[in-house]
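Q: Endonuclease/exonuclease/phosphatase family metal-dependent hydrolase, please. Structure only.
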Amino acid sequence: MYKRIRSRLDGIINPGERRRGGCSGSDHVPDFEPHRHIRLLTFNIQVGINTSSYHHYLTRSWQHLLPHRRRFDTLDRIAGLLSQYDVVALQECDGGSLRSGYINQVQYLAEAAGIPYWYQQLNRNLGQIAQHSNGLLSRFRPLDVTEHRLPGLIPGRGAIIARYGAEDDPLVLVLMHLSLSKAAQQRQLGFIRELISDYRHVVLMGDMNAHADQLLNETPLKETDLVPLPASAHSFPSWRPGKALDHILVSPSLEIRRSEVVSYPVSDHLPIAMDVALPKGYLETF
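A: Structure for Endonuclease/exonuclease/phosphatase family metal-dependent hydrolase:
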């Protein structure tokens, strides 16, 4: 288990030492095996703030800057959910600042959930005030993980790409958090489109701040054949879901065995889950 007290002390004693992201490494992480299906989850955790009403954006806004004693309770609840999945995309994590008690939330959730591999992408570094990050949790050892800064007028958005399986025909997972601006989304998805253009088996996961029909019909993703969740998969706001902003989009080579919005209201977004089966013949490549 992640050492809360030690990490808090490290952050207080050495407040100037800030890593630009972090990774658990590949030691003791199982290889990607020929499982028949993979359990995926994407979750915007809102840095562990439990939001259940619009007025909480005002009354609990201070928690975006300062620590709160119940934040670890929320993170532990989130970890309980994450423990049921194989690969998790996290958005709106804190990489270790005052508001999180100098805790890297990606690492904390990975260790609390018993998931051996984690990768933190630091997208907006505000020093001790905030460490805005994306996160990847994985039960399998990736071939490689790369991070990318997404284009936009206001910097601070990013994507993580993890490749699994066979080097010559990998399963490619892209974890992202897109901007609110539609113009920025166009540029960001154009960038993503170029990154995935040479791959057959692709999964896009994350908070995309747009509905699937817009993403697949009005952005550069229209040039792909990605399969979306049902239009009724509303994830925001968590207490009265009316918008489908969080997505898992997959190549048609990956069979969707199950997909759902998970009723787990501990953030202002609900998590999205999907089980995908690897394509026929792919298992024999291992």
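A: Brief note, in case it's useful. Residues 182-196 form the longest helix (15 residues).
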